[in-house]
């Protein structure tokens, strides 16, 4: 009957913008994060619930926006983000030696987080409007568009965020058709640099050796990675304790809420950057593999959406957003496991923190918007 209220119809209309497969994977990740936070920091659960509700709401709003509209917003969002970054450089608040926050009176912002999404969106839009006539100078323009926010973030300094912004932008440039002839030499130089760093680490980490491209604290992070036992109660404490927790979990783990490293407060920042150590200690290798499996499903779904996108900009945006999740997870797990320097990158959808969670869910909303725009109605 017309005029009758149908709850199922209303629910179906509300869920229409959301991709069912992505939504199911995200629900499992959120549930996993909730279980871990219950053990690591139960007093933060009410705030975490609020963060999740806000993030999901923002994701739904973004998913409901047509991808063409998202691409049309790229330039103003990018320019606004750059202006805010300049504002941080000129008027930002300094905390713990870094100038990353901007107080606007009614709200306190960290614009660098916003650029994790605005930068790949801008690059995707640029290559979208240049589709079919892409030449070498387009990659130069793209490199400049990436270098502007990246440089403003590096000088704050914020190594973790600059790494993620750089990765997001480079993924777009790569998916746009950057030649392997340019990628292989850079990759080769990086590998040679790592080998030399490992081989001559003792000499390079001496106090009188100046690393001109890095600040002193960044140099110490790399040197701590090479040998955390040089300062086991100081700079190496994070790495040593997290690797102890991971190793002590074994195959099946010590059991939920029974992690000694976790509950004796040996794991630093156990509710944020080092939550993977909590997972590995309490749920073991099996629990870690379950998490990696969920990330793999999310990445495969995202790449499938990108491959089926009906327009170049949507394809580039979906591919970049998907690989951002991979970068987050790879850097965080590598950092906690002691194979990468500690750079303050959260574990996607599990670490506590509203800004990072909202940023990631904006990305997922964009991915869902691309999924809605595909030509074929069904997978």
Give the ordered list of helices and strands: HHHHHEEEHHHHHHHHHHH
Q: Can you tell me the residue ranges where pLDDT is under 50 for at least 5 consecutive residues? A: 375-379
Main beta-sheet annotation: 3 strands, antiparallel
Structural class: mainly alpha
Q: Give the CA-CA distance, first to last residue.
A: 33 Å
Mean pLDDT: 83
The percent range for helix content is 55-70%
Report strand %.
Answer: under 5%
Give the count of helical stretches.
16
Over the alpha carbons, how many angstroms does the gyration radius reach?
22 Å
Number of strands: 3
**In which order are the strands of the major sheet placed?**
1-2-3
Number of domains: 2
Broad shape: globular
Describe it:
The chain has 379 residues and is mainly alpha-helical. The protein has 2 domains: 21-64 and 236-379, no CATH class; 65-177, no CATH class. The protein is 68% helix and 3% strand. Strands 1-2-3 form a 3-stranded antiparallel sheet, with helices on one face. The longest helix is centred in the C-terminal third of the chain and has 33 residues, at 275-307. The radius of gyration is 22 Å and the shape is globular. 42% of the residues are buried. Residues 375-379 have low confidence and may be disordered.
């Amino acid at each position: 009957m017309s005029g009758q209220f149908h709850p199922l119809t209303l629910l179906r209309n509300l869920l229409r913008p959301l991709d069912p497969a992505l939504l199911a994977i995200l629900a499992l990740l959120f549930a996993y994060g909730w279980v871990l936070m219950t053990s690591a920091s139960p007093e933060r659960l009410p705030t975490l619930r609020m963060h999740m509700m806000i993030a999901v709401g923002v994701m739904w709003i973004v998913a409901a926006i047509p991808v063409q509209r998202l691409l049309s917003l790229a330039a103003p969002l990018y320019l606004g983000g750059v202006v805010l970054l300049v504002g941080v450089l000129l008027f930002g608040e300094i905390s713990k030696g870094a100038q990353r926050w901007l107080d606007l009176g009614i709200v306190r912002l960290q614009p660098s987080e916003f650029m994790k999404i605005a930068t790949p969106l801008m690059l995707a839009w640029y290559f979208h409007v240049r589709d079919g006539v892409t030449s070498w100078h387009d990659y130069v323009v793209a490199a400049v568009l990436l270098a502007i926010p990246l440089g403003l973030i590096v000088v704050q300094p914020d190594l973790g965020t600059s790494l993620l912004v750089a990765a997001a932008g480079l993924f777009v440039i790569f998916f746009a058709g950057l030649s392997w002839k340019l990628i292989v030499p850079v990759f080769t130089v990086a590998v040679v640099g790592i080998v030399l760093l490992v081989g001559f680490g003792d000499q390079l980490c001496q106090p009188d050796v100046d690393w001109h491209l890095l600040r002193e604290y960044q140099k110490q992070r790399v040197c701590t990675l090479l040998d955390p036992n040089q300062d086991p109660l100081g700079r190496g404490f994070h790495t040593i304790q997290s690797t102890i927790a991971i190793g002590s979990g074994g195959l099946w783990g010590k059991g939920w809420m029974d992690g000694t490293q976790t509950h004796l407060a040996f794991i630093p920042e156990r509710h944020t950057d080092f939550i993977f150590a909590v997972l590995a200690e309490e749920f073991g290798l099996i629990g870690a593999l379950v998490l990696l499996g969920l990330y793999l499903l999310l990445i495969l779904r995202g790449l499938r959406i990108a491959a089926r996108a009906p327009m170049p900009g949507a394809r580039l945006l979906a591919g970049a957003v998907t690989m951002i999740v991979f970068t987050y997870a790879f850097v965080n797990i590598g950092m906690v496991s002691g194979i990468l320097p500690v750079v303050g990158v959260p574990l996607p959808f599990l670490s506590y923190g509203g800004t990072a969670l909202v940023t990631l869910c904006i990305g997922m909303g964009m991915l869902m918007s691309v999924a809605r725009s595909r030509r074929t109605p069904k997978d």
